Amino acid sequence: MTIKVLLVDDERLIRAGLAAIVSAEPDMTVVGECSDGAEVPGAVASLAPDVILMDVRMPRLDGIQATRRVVGSVPEPPRVIVVTTFENDEYVYDALKAGASGFLLKRARPEEILQAIRMVATGDSLLFPAAIRALAAEHGGGGRGGSGARWHERLTEREADVLRLMARGHSNAEIAAELFVSPQTVKTHVGNVLAKLQARDRTQAVIFAYETGFITPG
Asked: Which positions fall inside the Response regulatory domain (predicted)?
């Protein structure tokens, strides 16, 4: 499968650099570029990308609003990776809440960018536990409205354990080893957690867990 990538950044040089990195890979192709978030919905409709590399800060429509529009526009929207200069950027947490599957720093190495694209294209999430924990501590809801307790009751004990390990950045194989179950069992539990949270992927589940106070940054 060739992964179709859409580049969104208001800086032409950034787009050119990303295009050079992506286009050099035999399993990837750049299907288009946008200089502002306002152009993204139309590009998604016409180009049908699999993955969007989305600048989080843009002058007219930022990456948060653009991500929200994309995620809510089509039944199976492309995966969004937001790109930022600073990992503690307040925009990043909001973009993850809006539906992004993860984020990259603009100083990321080419191999890290390519790995991230391949991961989200196959349905995985880019979880950086320390960074998300720090963002949640600064911007998270901390259990606003007491919804965490009610939500917790919907999970089985094993599903709750799986979610906590997901928040620590564990893969299915690592969770399986920790809980002494098969990877396929873990996959089933992860699917149940996502369904009960109505979360698109692991990142959304972990963000929700922090927002409701089920997991605390400390």
From this structure: 4-121
